[in-house]
Fold this protein.
Amino acid sequence: QVQLVESGGGLVQAGGSLRLSCAASGRRFDDYAMGWFRQAPGSQRELVAVTTANGRTTYAAPVKGRFTISRDNAKNTLYLQMNSLRPEDTAVYYCSARRDAHYWGQGTQVTVSS
């Protein structure tokens, strides 16, 4: 059974940092594109950052320069380092793995207070 389990969310003040983790199990994801998405209340789910199987990364404009996506294939784990957090970063953050199939985690809440 394939599972993606996010952790590391929480409440932080504006300007602070959080590191999200996504632990994958059930299969290897070395050859999958993996990414982070987020969904704020009343908004659609949006891309935050993605890393391809060969390590190329893409960031959404609002987080570029503040967030860093990385992956540890040996641990089958995806990370998102979030610095200089802003209230508008408040959302549920979801881990995604995609190739021939598309898998999602259950999400972790990130709340940034002003």
Observations:
- The chain has a mean pLDDT of 96.
- The radius of gyration is 13 Å.
- The CA atoms of residues 53 and 103 lie 15 Å apart.
